[in-house]
Amino acid sequence: MARYRGPVEKLERRFGVSLALKGERRLAGKSALDKRPYAPGQHGARRGKISECGLQLREKQKAKFMYGVSEKQFRRLFAEAARKEGNTGVLLIQLLEQRLDNVVYRMGFATTRRFARQLVTHGHILVNGRRVDIPSFRVEAGAKIEVAEKSKNNPQISRAIDLTAQTGIVAWVDVEKDKRYGIFTRKPEREEVVIPVEERFIVELYSK
């Protein structure tokens, strides 16, 4: 299944939570979810009871849409997490957080992961001094993520930095905003990653 490219705010209304898919509108409290906090459609305001299987699928979809990955990519990441020693759900979240597009977003160079993905694919981002245009590139601890010299005055990046100053930067990155670079210092602990996803249901879904 390909990556979702439809109306993103309808997704947030369907799930009833913010998936950080809209940047400025979300920060300003003007997103569709803020205005209409119920599912789209004629009967959207009446939410029915969700089955156990439906709940498992719902959590997987939320994670996929939030991080902007395809079904194939998500399955591959889950399989990798399942092979590792430790909590599979936590390891899955850590692998998603290590994607380059997500790290660019976490550093505040983009207001959404979708825009961060565009920055990467269009060659605006360097990793340890080398241009990387693959959004799924895995960032390891200690890596330096930098906006390319030609893009440092990009008004959209500058705007993103100004806006994300309102929400702060996550604890597992160090960012020099004025110099347009940051260091991915470590993998995050699960309790540090504030997302509306219960990964245990995803583990249950794929463990059937």
UniProtKB/TrEMBL annotation:
Pfam family, one: S4
MF-aspect GO terms: rRNA binding; structural constituent of ribosome
InterPro entries: Ribosomal_uS4, Ribosomal_uS4_bac-type, Ribosomal_uS4_CS, Ribosomal_uS4_N, S4_RNA-bd, S4_RNA-bd_sf
Coiled coil region boundaries: none
Ribonucleoprotein as UniProt keyword: yes
Residue ranges occupied by any RNA-binding S4 domain in the UniProt entry: 98-162
Keyword rRNA-binding in annotation: yes
Residue span(s) of domain Small ribosomal subunit protein uS4 N-terminal: 3-97
GO biological process, one term: translation
GO cellular component, one term: small ribosomal subunit
Entry keyword set: Ribonucleoprotein, Ribosomal protein, RNA-binding, rRNA-binding
Sequence similarity: Belongs to the universal ribosomal protein uS4 family.
Role played: One of the primary rRNA binding proteins, it binds directly to 16S rRNA where it nucleates assembly of the body of the 30S subunit.
Subunit structure, as described in the record: Part of the 30S ribosomal subunit. Contacts protein S5. The interaction surface between S4 and S5 is involved in control of translational fidelity.
HAMAP family: Ribosomal_uS4_B
This protein's name: Small ribosomal subunit protein uS4
Organism whose genome encodes this protein: Campylobacter upsaliensis
Lineage: Bacteria, Pseudomonadati, Campylobacterota, Epsilonproteobacteria, Campylobacterales
Gene: rpsD
